[in-house]
Amino acid sequence: MAPPFRRGDMVWSYFPFVEMPDVPARTRHAAIIIGAFSAIEASRVMGHQSPAYGAAVAVYTSSQVRKFGGNLPIGIIQVPLDRARQNKNSSAFFIDTRVRAYLPIHKDYFPDLDAPDHGLITSIDPGLFRRVMEEFARVNERAREQIVTVGPLRPR
C-alpha cells in the first residue's frame, strides 16, 4: 500500500520533542514531509517490520517567526505571510530543516491519519519544497553537528 503522504505535504503531527524523542508530543504541530515510504520500503530500510502505512521523514515548522531575528542560521527557511498564504497558511512561519523526525505512519504520530485527507494542511509549492531540500542538503554538508533527530525510527 502506498503511503498516504507525499514529499512536500504539510500535515498535522504529534512531532516529538527533543527531551522525549521517541514519544509523540501531546500537541498538534505542522510538519513537512520530505520522505514517505511504503511498509515494504520502510521494512527494507529498517531491517524489520514497519507499520502498515509505512514510515515518514518530516522537518519541523513553527509560527514563532521572531525566534531567530534577522540572522537566520543554516537550515532555517523563513516563509513570509504572503507566501504562507499562497501555501494555505494564515500566518508567517519558518521551516527548520535541522530538526528531523523519523516516524511510523501511525495515528500515534499523525492524529488525523484516519480522516479522508489524512491531516493534510497543504502541499507546499514546488519552489518552496526545492528550497527545503536544498537547505536539508546544505545542513548535511556544512553543519552536521546542528542536526537534531527525533522519532522512534531515527538513525542511532
Short description:
With 156 residues, the chain is α+β, with helices and mostly antiparallel strands. The protein has 3 helices and 7 strands, in the order ββαββαββαβ.
Textual characterization of the structure:
This protein is α+β, with helices and mostly antiparallel strands. The chain has a single domain (9-150), classed as Roll (SH3 type barrels), CATH 2.30.30. It contains 3 helices and 7 strands, in the order E-E-H-E-E-H-E-E-H-E. The chain has helices at 39-46, 81-86, 126-142, and strands at 9-13, 29-37, 55-62, 76-79, 93-104, 120-123, 148-150. Strands 1, 2, 3, 4, 5, 6 and 7 form a 7-stranded mixed β-sheet that branches. The radius of gyration is 15 Å and the shape is globular.
End-to-end gap: 27 Å
Number of domains: 1
Oligomer: single chain
* Number of continuous helical runs: 3
Counting DSSP E segments of at least 2 residues, the number of strands comes to 7
Roughly what fraction of the amino acids lie in strands?
25-35%
Overall pLDDT, averaged? 92
Overall shape: it is globular
> What is the CATH architecture assignment?
Roll
Q: From the alpha-carbon coordinates, what is the Rg to the nearest angstrom?
A: 15 Å
Most strands sheet: 7 strands, mixed
Q: What portion of residues is helical?
A: 10-25%
The CATH class designation is Mainly Beta
User: How would you classify the helix and strand content by structural class?
Assistant: alpha+beta
Topology record:
Layout: E1 9-13, E2 29-37, H1 39-46, E3 55-62, E4 76-79, H2 81-86, E5 93-104, E6 120-123, H3 126-142, E7 148-150
Parallel strand pairs: 5-7
Antiparallel strand pairs: 1-2, 1-6, 2-3, 3-5, 4-5
